[in-house]
Design goal:
alpha/beta; single chain; two-stranded parallel sheet; Uracil-DNA Glycosylase, subunit E
C-alpha cells in the first residue's frame, strides 16, 4: 500500500525487501552492498526504495542524510514513519509527480546521527561520499533532473554537474516539519518547487 508512514509496519518492510530483486532496482542494491562492504559495519546504509523508479528514474531527489526512521525501516523512502517523509509524500502527490519516474537518495548515504537524531551534514561528510554519488550518476542512464532538497544537499552540486553535465539541476526546500510548520508560506514554497519539476517532467515527455 502506497501511503504515508506505511513502513512503520514490519509486514510492509518485509514486502518491500522482497521487491529488491526486481530488475529496475537490482544494480542499485549491488551498489549499496558495495558501499556497506567498503565502509564497514560502522556505516549504516539503507536501501533505495523499490517502489521508486530505480535505474529508470528521470528525476533524482537528493536529500542530506538518512534519519533514524530510514535506518529502522532499511529504506530511503517517502513511506518512512516520520513527518519529513509524510510531507514529501503528500507534496509530491499534490504536484502530480509519479514516483515511478523518480528516486530518492542522500548526499551522505549513511547515517551520521546519534541513534535518535541525525546531525547536520558537513561539507566533509558529503566529500567522503563523492565516489558513491559518481557511481550512482553513472548507473542512472535515464536521469534528466537532479533536485537538491535542502541547503546541505547542495554540497554535492559540483560533483553532479562535473560527472553529469547533461542533467538539469534544481533545488527545493527541505520538507522537514521544522521548515514546513515554521510559516504558512513554506508548504506553498515546497509545493511550488515540485510543481515546477512536474512541468519540466511533462515537457521532457512531450
Amino acid at each position: 500500500m502506497d501511503a504515508p508512514k506505511t513502513l512503520a509496519s514490519e509486514f510492509e518492510r518485509a514486502a518491500r525487501r522482497a521487491l529488491l530483486t526486481q530488475s529496475h532496482i537490482a544494480s542499485l542494491v549491488r551498489l549499496v552492498e558495495s558501499m556497506r562492504e567498503a565502509k564497514g559495519p560502522g556505516y549504516k546504509v539503507p536501501d533505495f526504495d523499490p517502489l521508486d523508479g530505480g535505474i529508470n528514474a528521470q528525476v533524482l531527489f537528493l536529500l542530506e542524510a538518512p534519519g533514524p526512521k530510514a535506518i529502522t525501516s532499511g529504506f530511503v523512502s517517502r513511506n518512512n514513519p516520520d513527518e519529513t517523509a509524510k510531507n514529501f509524500f503528500l507534496l509530491n502527490e499534490k504536484a502530480g509527480i509519479d514516483r515511478r519516474r523518480t528516486m530518492i537518495w542522500n548526499a551522505v548515504p549513511w547515517y551520521i546521527g546519534s541513534g535518535t537524531k541525525v546531525r547536520p551534514a558537513k561539507r566533509d561528510d558529503v566529500r567522503e561520499a563523492d565516489e558513491w554519488l559518481k557511481a550512482l550518476m553513472a548507473t542512472l542512464q535515464q536521469l534528466q533532473i537532479v533536485v537538491f532538497v535542502g541547503q546541505k544537499a547542495m554540497y554535492a552540486q559540483g560533483v553532479v554537474q562535473r560527472c553529469r553535465p547533461d542533467v538539469q539541476v534544481m533545488k527545493m526546500p527541505h520538507p522537514s516539519p521544522m521548515f514546513i510548520n515554521r510559516s504558512p508560506d513554506n508548504r506553498a514554497r515546497a509545493l511550488e518547487a515540485l510543481q515546477e519539476i512536474s512541468v519540466r517532467m511533462a515537457t521532457s515527455e512531450a
